Amino acid sequence: MISLRLLLILVFVCILVAPLQTLAQPYEMQYERPVDVAPTEEDIGEGYEVPPVQRPYPRSVLLEMLDVILLLTAMGLAAWIVLARRNRRWLVALTIVCLGYFGFYREGCVCPIGAIQNVSVAFVDPKFAVSYSVIAFFIFPLVLAVLFGRVFCGGVCPLGAIQELVLLRPVEVPKPIDRALGSLKYIYLILAIMVAVRPEITRDFLICRFDPFVGFFRFEGPAHMLMIGGAFLLLAVFVGRPFCRYLCPYGVLLSLLSRLSWKGVSITPNRELDCGLCMKACPYGAIENMRAVRSSCLFCARCYNACPIHRADGVELASIQNSSSELGR
Amino acid sequence: MSEKKPRREFVGDIARGVTLVGLCGAGAFLARKTSDVYAWQLDAEKCVNSRLGATGVDVCELCSSECVVNLSAVRAVNEYSKCGRCYICPAYFDITSAVDEEGLPSQKLCPRDAIERKAIGWVDPDDPANNFYEYIIDEEKCNGCGRCVMGCKEPAGLGSIKLEVRYEFCLDCNRCSIAIACPDEAYYQETEFASAEGEKAEELPAAD
Question: Which residues make Cβ contacts (< 8 Å) with residue B165, sequence separation at least 6?
């Protein structure tokens, strides 16, 4: 009996309290749009002026031209330093500058390696076009390759530069392994073009997606790509430029065209010593029988740096030549 | 022997010449298709957040989460000439939140507090509801999440806030991550930007 009364009281209390609780809950605003048209300057009054909307324009054509001019200047300088001056120190300085500008400042874009994809899509797809700077970045290094060899690889390419600068303990890769790995880049090139020229929805830019170093240039990127990039850099301390030699798809085009090169890195008996030190110095296996192989020469000028004649800076040229001839005897 | 060497050089010269002409030809072919500027752009008409009647999504935040740049290159922009300068702006306030003592929604919509609100023109000190308010988006704080765009969209607002690609931040990636993720293909790479937005381009100084 008591419990029934208690229950009744409880129900009663609940009924009493319920409306209080709904009151305590915040009510939602009945929102409707306050205005139908935007007020004009006169509506607002007090000499109000509509502020300008900050709307930037894409990177100006002038600045893109500057990129192209810098690319040409850098390639010209690299060719001059390597072919005429035969000086590695200056080339390293140029490499650092180019890594700074094309790598860290321009954050790895535009690069000719990725441009392969844009250019091949532009050839296939009538609606797809590439900008002048992309065309210039794609064509000029190839033109320079026909004239002088892989100048672009030497001092200009930021991907090459970052590997070049960490190469501290070069180890010679056995020839068969070198050759086998070297064929990977052909496969990569064909694969990248095939994926890029697919219809728009399924199109993908593999070279850009799997660029191992762009994450460093931008100080951010997918964790797995940063790890792969780190692994490449670690490998590059011992194996000279693993990406350039075994994977770079643009390197395929450059090495093919540099076979035709008009003037290229050459180790000549009248300007260098035929001692074979250059062969040991070359981390890329690009010197065979004391002569440079243009298709695989990456324009690093290590051979000239190792040459006793250039090391002596021509000062005691005669004495060195004498001593070498004595040694030869 | 004396005949052979010049011939070999001659063949080399021809090969070089042909290759160079071929390269120039390829360059010319590509250049003919090109106009000056080539940049990623966001079509507001197609953006889920600003499109009329787009439903089924709470808010699409892919522009802020997908961009490879730390703070996305996409930012919200208030087109002031179209802004209603409302007392209770559905893009500034979270209009579903509780009402505070002043009769305004107690919470702001922007998670980064990037919108500044201030009374403009002739200000009525007694009745704040009678005033016009300017809503200025702080570019430095905005990450292009699109909540305000969703809020300002008609019929709640006049739709003056849109998402835009900021070219000074955009890296112009070949594979724009946002374009890949965008559910409505609102991203496109414009090849004839200058002519498409000819009037605007003339008014605006070129970015530096």
Answer: B39, B40, B41, B42, B73, B74
